[in-house]
Amino acid sequence: MRTAPRCAPQRPTEVARRGKRLTHHGFSGTPLLWLRKMGDFSRMPASPYDHRVSIHVTGPMHTRLTRLADDRNLPIAELARDALREYLDQQEDVQGSRKHFTKGFQRRIDFIEWQLFVLLWLVARSFAYLISNASGKKLAPETLMEQSLKLAQERRVWMTDQLLNTSSRPEEDQ
């Protein structure tokens, strides 16, 4: 029966206590020699990565990863983290991903747009009712909306100037 390989110890000092020979990073020999060559680990900053994930890849995948890592002068682990980060950002069902945020934001914008449409429709119906009662002519809300939109398109520049001038005035003048 085949057993799973043991994970590498987290710290070189753990290896040194076990008395095993190391061949990590091109250093071989006794653990004490290896520790001397590597330096004092108490001054090393803590890694921001506190969880470990292991994967198995095919030979061709490893070859491509190695070439890519050499071309970019990055460790394979950093390439794998970048690929995993990109994959997670593209998942819309993973909360916190970019796609999830974008989809949620789009839903909120669609809802606000729907609310604006309902409010405009209610305002148009109210104005149509008031105008119909005041003038004695029947006015449909659709006609009022069409006329309002047409006039807004014709006077777009003038309306923009009015909005900018109103917003740029000091508060005491208003």
Describe the structure.
- This protein is mainly α.
- Among the domains are: 8-40, no CATH class; 110-173, no CATH class.
- It is built from seven helices and no strands.
- It has helices at residues 12-18, 31-38, 59-72, 76-89, 98-135, 141-154, 156-168.
- The N and C termini lie far apart (85 Å).
- Residues 7-29 have low confidence and may be disordered.
Terminal CA distance reads 85 Å
Q: What is the total tally of β strands?
A: 0
Radius of gyration: 34 Å
Structural class given helices, strands, pairing? mainly alpha
Number of helices: 7
Low-confidence stretches: 7-29
Percent of sequence in beta strands: under 5%
What value does the average pLDDT take? 76
User: Based on CA inertia axes, which overall geometry fits?
Assistant: elongated
Fraction of residues in H or I helices: 55-70%
Q: How do the SSEs run, as a string of H and E?
A: HHHHHHH
Sheet with the most strands, sense and barrel status: none
Concise synopsis of the structure shown:
With 174 residues, the chain is an all-alpha fold. It contains seven helices and no strands.
Mind sketching the topology for me?
Layout (H helix, E strand, L loop, with lengths): L11 H7 L12 H8 L20 H14 L3 H14 L8 H38 L5 H14 L1 H13 L6
Helix pairs in contact: 5-6
